Amino acid sequence: VTTAQLNKAGIKNYEITRLYDEGVLTQIRRGYHRVKFVRQLNKEKLILAIHPDAVFCLRYSLKMHGGKNRTVFDIAIPQKTSWCRCQPIEGLDINYFYISNTTRDTELGFTYKDGLPIYDYERTICDFYKYRKRIGATDRMLWDVIKKYYSEKYCADDKVRAKQLKEKIERYASKLHLLPDAREKLKLDLD
Description:
Elements: H1 3-8, H2 13-22, E1 25-29, E2 32-35, H3 43-50, E3 55-56, H4 58-64, E4 73-78, E5 94-99, H5 103-107, E6 110-113, E7 116-119, H6 121-130, H7 139-153, H8 159-175, H9 179-185
Parallel strand pairs: 4-5
Antiparallel strand pairs: 1-2, 3-4, 6-7
Helix pairs in contact: 4-6, 6-7, 6-8, 8-9
């Protein structure tokens, strides 16, 4: 991590010095630091300092949208990201999901919530389906996410809004190449 990246993430120079004193950071060379472990540091800021092009996704995104998950930092990063930036950090549970470098994949469903870059609820549902085996999600967990989404986003008597939301998820699933299998699993039958 560079000093400039830490400053850009909102960590001041005096805070960097304090992190050295506490043993959280070690110096690799002037202006370059290695994170040893994380304690009282804003973890989201640290992740964005290490990966400025990261987008919070999956379980962390669900938590930001009102879910109740333990704090697992799932982040989407471009494939061009150097593997040495993806080393484990003690005290910080980060799962990396590589996405293609095209704007179509990185910006699809991209938004900010509480100042953090995350994917919107619909993109999160599609990604949850796509990576369900990798994150250890069961079909029951997927069904609970979808049920919560529909109960929050529209009332049962608002058929027009329901159809718009289903079409949005279907559009995302199509762009993420999930449509044939996802239509059945995500309960997108509009009849």
